[in-house]
């Protein structure tokens, strides 16, 4: 059973990468590109909408909602394109991860949070 869970997690990771590739490819239909971009960005982001420390609900997005969203977008992508994106994602899976890419994603989220904090910070009239 543990082996099946690991295989499924690997497949979800490959499909998220395939969605990222699909979102950047002009051959993918526009609605699928937009949804693929949103889902891949959320899946690859270190920040969750529902924090993991909240019992039950914290794991709901990764365990149920994210795979369902991935399945939805996969159905919107033509099969030959999806096979190509999955093959590319599987080929790059063996390569080492990018710490620079992870740092960039964290930096973008921190800048967005700082911008929102600055925007909503109460100011006194001078």
TrEMBL record:
<dbReference type="InterPro" id="IPR010652">
    <property type="entry name" value="DUF1232"/>
</dbReference>
<protein>
    <submittedName>
        <fullName>DUF1232 domain-containing protein</fullName>
    </submittedName>
</protein>
<dbReference type="Pfam" id="PF06803">
    <property type="entry name" value="DUF1232"/>
</dbReference>
<keyword id="KW-0472">Membrane</keyword>
<feature type="transmembrane region" description="Helical">
    <location>
        <begin position="34"/>
        <end position="57"/>
    </location>
</feature>
<dbReference type="GO" id="GO:0012505">
    <property type="term" value="C:endomembrane system"/>
</dbReference>
<feature type="domain" description="DUF1232">
    <location>
        <begin position="32"/>
        <end position="68"/>
    </location>
</feature>
<keyword id="KW-0812">Transmembrane</keyword>
<feature type="transmembrane region" description="Helical">
    <location>
        <begin position="63"/>
        <end position="82"/>
    </location>
</feature>
<feature type="transmembrane region" description="Helical">
    <location>
        <begin position="102"/>
        <end position="121"/>
    </location>
</feature>
<keyword id="KW-1133">Transmembrane helix</keyword>
